[in-house]
UniProtKB/TrEMBL annotation:
Gene3D superfamilies linked to this entry: GroEL (3.50.7.10), GroEL-like equatorial domain (1.10.560.10), TCP-1-like chaperonin intermediate domain (3.30.260.10)
Coiled coil: none
Annotated organism of origin: Natrinema halophilum
Family: Belongs to the TCP-1 chaperonin family.
Sample GO molecular function, one term: unfolded protein binding
Name used for this protein in its record: Thermosome subunit
Source domain of life: Archaea
InterPro entries documented for this protein: Chaperone_TCP-1, Chaperonin_TCP-1_CS, Cpn60/GroEL/TCP-1, GroEL-like_apical_dom_sf, GROEL-like_equatorial_sf, TCP-1-like_intermed_sf, TCP-1_chaperonin, thermosome_alpha
Pfam families in UniProt: Cpn60_TCP1 (PF00118)
Residue ranges, annotated region (Disordered): 1-20
Amino acid sequence: MFILSEDSQRTQGRDAQSSNIMAGKAVAESVRTTLGPRGMDKMLVDSGGDVVITNDGATILNKMDIEHPAAQMIVEVADSQEEEVGDGTTTAAVLAGNLLGEAEDLIEQDVHATTIVEGYHEAAEIALEAIAEQVDEADVDDEILQQVAESSMTGKGTGGLTATSLAETVVEAIRHVETDSGVARDNVTVHTQIGASSNATELVPGIIVDEEPVHDAMPAEVKDASIAILDVELDVRTGDVDAEYAIDSIDQLNAAIDAEEGELKGYAETVADSGADVVFTTEDVADRVATALANEGILVFEGLGDSDAREVASATGARRVGALEDLEDEDLGSADRIHTETFGDDDLAFVEGGAAAETVTVFVRGGTEHVVDELERAIEDALDVVATALESGEVVPGAGATEIAIADKIRQEAAGIEGRKQLAVTSFADAIDVVPRTLAANTGQDPIDALVDLRAAHESEGRAGLITSGDEVSIDDPFDNGVVDPADVKREAIESATEAATMIARIDDVIAAE
């Protein structure tokens, strides 16, 4: 009797567990060498020949053509980390892989998967307590926020800019969108433009739209702008039904032409009478209407995408209008200045100040597409972690110090846990050690010697991390050296890695249909 299709493949027991764990470990290993300030980059080439060069864990895992379902769970760990806190994706993936490796050793020792899961969850709770104990008691001020941003970007591709100079821009951007109710992270955008050194990267108090004026005679700059956003085609109206009109005389032809001209001129007059001197529309603008609007000194941008229109509306306070005759004064938004600039073959519209001042844009420059793409990823991560640190007000030491503290506390607590679950708790601590060991290996140090020295320094000083300064590597207090991470980044990495590892470890039957 066939219950499953004859073409189905089924793997059970140890074979299933081993296959899933091996896949998870392989994916985690693929990003391990990118961890830390001396982490290496990966070059990813897709089937179409497009190249991505990055050391961002989430980007690497998403660009890889991963088919194994267990390996996909590790990718989801990185995605979750990226979505929740914006950084620590490599840490979370590597930790998940090492938790699986420790679980595999326990399974070979006949420790049941349920016992491993229980031990891992208990160890994760101890880890969260250890993180809370490592939180710096000082207020999170601009100096600490800059350290958070710099720690996030160190080792990533930042072109000709240093992480220190970029950190100042990142903190300024986040402080700009700080409100009484929190940080409006969505009000900070990143716009990339190829064609200059990364040193030209700057903060724009407003938004940037990739559009050009519809007519060359329109002004290149409008100050104290009143802005209308239309979902209206400024062209001769046509009916929905096909129809033909017979014209028997020149007078009739002239009358038709005059009517058309009057309709088009009326559009320009309606816009001018509304008080708007800048118009963004999602539809097209006829050439004759554009000319008339240019004669009125009105700056017009056509064919905006829906997302751009929403962004302009949000930044300027303008309301989108679906019929020109409905345009009223209260529908208009405002900005201190709107101007257009040309960069190579691209024209950009800058909407600055006024109502737009509630939003800011990090205008990223770079000489090549690869540079600006990696710089954008680094800045996006830094913006996320600075926003996270500012909202939570909690930071912990980086450079592996927090992981050393977590592993130490778990080993201490493990002594009071009875039964085989103690083995799982201790194995969790061993898995946590992968972070400082990997940091050491990526800086050219012996991982075992570095781990021993870090543990000894932690016992004597209470806080010890692997500090990299130029070509020198030393063991010191990360807080004293400005190596700081948001506590939420560590918490999310522990929680997401534990969830993925325990889910994979419990699978003992894989049924694949062909």
